Amino acid sequence: MPSQAFKHFRVNMIDVYRLIESHNEISPNHRGKRALGHLTRSGVVMLCACWELYNESLIIESARYLANKLDSPL
Fold it and tell me: With contact defined as beta carbons under 8 Å apart, do 53 and 44 qualify?
């Protein structure tokens, strides 16, 4: 069963996939410069943001899980 963090990651990745699709639609043959650096950079920034949020959420989720399994704080 996937964690809640991973479920949110998959939802957040939809924007990254849309940017990839937009890039492919504008430049289907990938030949020559088409001044698409802004789409490429946007995709990289969104991917990094999604990955960062996933890691933060996973750490919080893991800490809560472990804290709930402890009988005492020592």
Answer: no
What is the residue whose two structure tokens read 């999604």?
Answer: 50
Amino acid at 28: P
Q: At what angle do helices 37-69 and 4-26 cross, to 10 degrees?
A: 170
pTM of the predicted model, to two decimals?
Answer: 0.80
Domain boundaries, the chain: 4-69
Question: Cα–Cα distance between 19 and 39 in angstroms, integer?
Answer: 7
Give the tens place of pLDDT for each residue, 16-72: 999 999 988 888 776 766 788 888 899 999 999 999 999 999 999 999 999 999 988
Contact indicator for 9, 53 with CB cutoff of 8 Å: yes
